[in-house]
Amino acid sequence: MSEIYYPKKEMFTDPLIKNMCEYNDLVEEFEKDYEGTWGKYAQEKIDWFKPFDRVLNEDDAPFYKWFEGGELNVAYQCVGRHLKTKKNKAAIIFEGDNGDQRTLTYRELYYEVNRTANLFRNKFNIKKGDRVVLYMPMIPEAAISMLACAKLGAIHSVVFGGFSAEALRDRIIDAEAKLVVTADGAFRKGKPYMLKPVVDEALEEGCDCVEAVCVVERNGEDIHWEAGRDYAYNELVENESVQCEPEMVDSEHPLFLLYTSGSTGKPKGVQHSSAGYILWAQMTMEWVFDIKDNDTYWCTADVGWITGHTYIVYGPLAAGATTVMFEGVPTFPDAGRCWKMVEEYQINQFYTAPTAIRLLHKMGVDEPAKYDLSSLRILGTVGEPIDPAAWKWYYEAVGNSNCSIVDTYWQTETGGHMISPLPAATPIKPGCATFPLPGIVAEIMEEDGTPTPVGEKGFMCITKPWPSMIRTIWNDPERFVKSYFGDCKKDGKAVYFTGDGAMMDEDGYITITGRTDDVINVSGHRMGTAEVEAAVKKHDNVAAVAVVGKPHEIKGEGIFAYIVLKDDEGVADELETMKEINTIIKSEIGAIALCDDMAFVPDLPKTRSGKIMRRILRSLVKGEAITQDTSTLEDPSIVGIIEDILKKEC
Ligand code: 6R9
């Protein structure tokens, strides 16, 4: 039995959900009238320009439509509408790696978004529905550009700044982007790093769709300038008007695409809607982070990931909160950087990933004690399961045993939190995402849709559509249906399949046990094995490869590759090959996909039909006993051979 931690009631003043009775009442309200309750929230929370006339349309399931008939503008929902009551409130507080500080009030943010939207519209001819790729560092202009797109009804696709030119090119081409917004570069650990050269390289081939590149100045380093294609943001935006009419869009109009890894093939462009997405971003911000008017909220994610979209930009701003944007890394100049910022800005909600908690724990166990962290009320985690040691340190050393830890389980595809404690209400068991949020019907099932018994591991499914769910995969509706709506059915209808394993205990608490597919969770970031393998195969001397996750002290999971060489000339050759392979991965995907370790093996365990048995490879790398039946393998002896090779390497 794990320990239970009760919320400290004195930490909360008038939270939206005060206790488990209120939670249960809300769940019941949704149960009794699912559509009516969602409709009520949509009416209450969104500033509609035209009211919707239907809550949920399931005719074309799983292509669900929410709030049909409604018209809105997401930038208005996040910025414009707040001018009435909070024009002088800080919307974004920026802290640079180099200590730069900048605060934008809602009024200032409104003007910046408008000028940027005017620039996109007037200079680059961006119209409703056009795609704009953002390849940006963590600076306010990233959020401003996202909102400027929303203002025009243009669809942004943010590509994480750590991705390579190749990865960026693939995304630009798939999205058929007309404009790329980037920066010269930014700062990391006190030194400048570059982004624009990566864009230049990406645009070398196949990107005919791109008409212009808009470059924000951040680090002032020299960059190549392509006349007629590249435009200086800072100079041009000055001349634009601070007034800009928002473009009204339908509820279902795509707000953005965000590419994420799946278990097979290339990354998929997850498409999100306008109304449903922003509604849930705002509601979860209010429920899970208990956002109050005077709070300062900080999420350490990068805007290149969904957490940055929903919980740095859209959620906090829709809720009218003050959101902190941090350009640097948590361990620079030392492992006290975050705690120093918490003290300085009097942060009330701090949201980060278990990998960062483990790193900060390891590098600076006593650092939190050096700062006044008493402003903190809620600590959040996201991205991967959190282990009890990290949880305890976070709770005690950072939260002074006063804060509620919200372990938020969700995905790029879900748009916002699915399973999470409510900070003032839910008694918490460490390492447990606890209960589905009201309105979310999450169930643990077997592959055939039967319920998984309590205490056993099954598949996490969401059995009713919800407003912020993925709408489709850009350019590939078939893959959307195939990836998420498979054999798991309830009442004859395919349910949303998360790809995660989960377990429920006798008290109804849900623990997420990790991916059940070929996706590796590296530092909370999803990497598809197929993508990494495709990169490794580009090496001339690689005959076959299989990539699996291997437990890693800080990253959660690291990437481990089993490699069969065409021609193996010994250890020296292998070491060289390892380096070469990682160089290829870096240029094909980016440094986040580098292999931590590799083993050179004579063959891979395959079934007679040629399918690689990854489960065996996963068990082998963890040093687990092989429980799978190996008699169906083409060559069962290979398992023992690989085992010996791994033992020798250790
Ligand atoms: C938001 C985000 C999604 C995958 C997801 C799961 C893992 C996220 C988690 C968690 C355990 C949590 N995951 N939150 N696992 N506990 N609180 O991370 O989106 O990048 O799409 O990753 O991350 O495996 O399926 P995304």
TrEMBL record:
Keywords: Acetylation, ATP-binding, Ligase, Magnesium, Metal-binding, Nucleotide-binding
The keyword ATP-binding belongs to this UniProt entry's keyword annotation: yes
Primary enzyme class: ligase
Domain annotation AMP-binding enzyme C-terminal: ranges: 531-611
Pfam families recorded: ACAS_N (PF16177), AMP-binding (PF00501), AMP-binding_C (PF13193)
Function text: Catalyzes the conversion of acetate into acetyl-CoA (AcCoA), an essential intermediate at the junction of anabolic and catabolic pathways. AcsA undergoes a two-step reaction. In the first half reaction, AcsA combines acetate with ATP to form acetyl-adenylate (AcAMP) intermediate. In the second half reaction, it can then transfer the acetyl group from AcAMP to the sulfhydryl group of CoA, forming the product AcCoA.
The keyword Ligase appears for this protein: yes
Protein name in UniProt: Acetyl-coenzyme A synthetase
Processing after translation: Acetylated. Deacetylation by the SIR2-homolog deacetylase activates the enzyme.
Residues the record lists as N6-acetyllysine modifications: K611
Family per similarity comment: Belongs to the ATP-dependent AMP-binding enzyme family.
Lineage, uppermost ranks: Bacteria, Pseudomonadati, Campylobacterota, Epsilonproteobacteria, Campylobacterales
Domain AMP-dependent synthetase/ligase: from-to ranges: 82-466
Enzyme Commission number: 6.2.1.1
An example molecular function term from Gene Ontology annotations: AMP binding
Binding site for CoA: R188, K189, G190, K191, T307, S523
